[in-house]
Amino acid sequence: MKQALLALLLLATAGCSSAYYAAMEKVGFEKRDILESRVEDARDAQLKSQQEFKDALTQLSQMIGFHGGDLQAKYEALSAQYDESKAAADEVSARINKVETVAFDLFAEWEDELKQYQNAQLRADSRQKLIATKRQFDALVRTMRKAERKMPPVLRALHDNVLYLKHNLNAKAIGALTGEFNGLQSDINNLVRDMDQAIAESNQFIQSIKQN
To answer: What is the pTM of this model?
Structure first.
């Protein structure tokens, strides 16, 4: 079993899609199963990213309200949280890309296999399910991408704050960031709200895939 899983991993890493799909089918995973799994992964990545951005906001808030003590330790915690937020955002983008890749392949295969039907009624029913699934998927990806587009501006603002504190680690510098905090807080709250919508739509899509 371990050798089979390793072989699948190597195929996936090599980027050989057709061989990867063929290997997955041999162990009982069709493209729709892979799509379901990848939507789940994208959803989980967004959940993690949400928390990382919230934690970064908390770290910045604590630093702005910090009086006395070890400023360096607080700065290092904020800097580390920025790195975690950046990594989580990159993972979200990577997961969405993987979702789109397998969906494109699944829909292309589905469309092609419609030609194989001899029964016109079954073909028509399958075509309607394909259209509905594609419509729901397109809406899901739009929502995911909308949230994704809001991550870079938040990361840039966080990075600016971290970089400013790196070279100006004193009470005056911390005070100067107070005005920036409210705007960043609003941006992160908007991002979290958009991610909530994407996560909810992901769950709906997963349930729809399971029922079809």
So the answer is: 0.86
H/E stretch holding 167: helix 151-167
Q: 105 Cβ partners below 8 Å, 6+ apart?
A: 17, 21, 31
Q: The tokens 């997955």 sit on which residue?
A: 24
The answer to whether 150 touches 33, Cβ cutoff 8 Å, is no
pLDDT, one tens digit per residue, over 171-206 is: 888 888 888 888 999 999 999 999 999 999 999 999
User: Who contacts 176 (Cβ-Cβ below 8 Å, separation ≥6)?
Assistant: 164, 168
Sole residue written with tokens 């589905």 = 110
- Residue 89's Cβ-count burial label (10 Å; 0-12, 13-18, 19+) is buried
Contact 197, 124 (CB under 8 A): no
Query: What does the pLDDT look like over 7-63, one tens digit per residue?
Result: 454 444 445 678 888 888 888 889 999 999 999 999 999 999 999 999 999 999 988
The span from the CA of 33 to the CA of 209, in Å, is 9
- The residue written with tokens 């949230």 in the block is 147
Residue with tokens 């991408």: 145
Mapped onto helix, strand or coil, the DSSP state of residue 4 is helix
